[in-house]
Amino acid sequence: MKRRLMFGVIGLIAVIGVLQLVPYRVSNPSVRHEPAWDSPQTRQLAVAACFDCHSNEVNVYSWEKVAPLSWWIKDHVDKGRSALNFSECTQGRGESDEAGETIREGSMPPGYFTWFGLHSSAKLTSAEKDQLVAGLQASLTGWNCGGEGD
Fold first, then answer.
1. Number of domains in the chain
2. Taking the alpha carbons of 38, 148, 101, 72 in that order, is the dihedral positive or negative?
């Protein structure tokens, strides 16, 4: 019984080790262009609550680079960037209301983003959320930062 358990543990470690060879992790391309922020506070709030999924400046914890968790993180960031990427903005028709609406309704940032005290800076007070929503509406008007407007 102990021998089977030992082989099982060794097998599991070997499989996890082999998974690390799959190069599917978050990368940060260079920042092309951010919107014209209405204030430094709006950018600061966006960095705290949004940039780890919606920019080319994603901070990933070292343990988030371990497969298969890294695959989930990369997929999540790729989807976030495709919806809105503050590092890839161009002037043009933008969706300034949509970003604010997701914050106002509570779907962004997602609840699990701050589990276990992680990304604690993304936990905004009601006043900070209101300030971010107003700031995003002012900052993103006339800017296309991905998503529907692409």
1. 1
2. negative
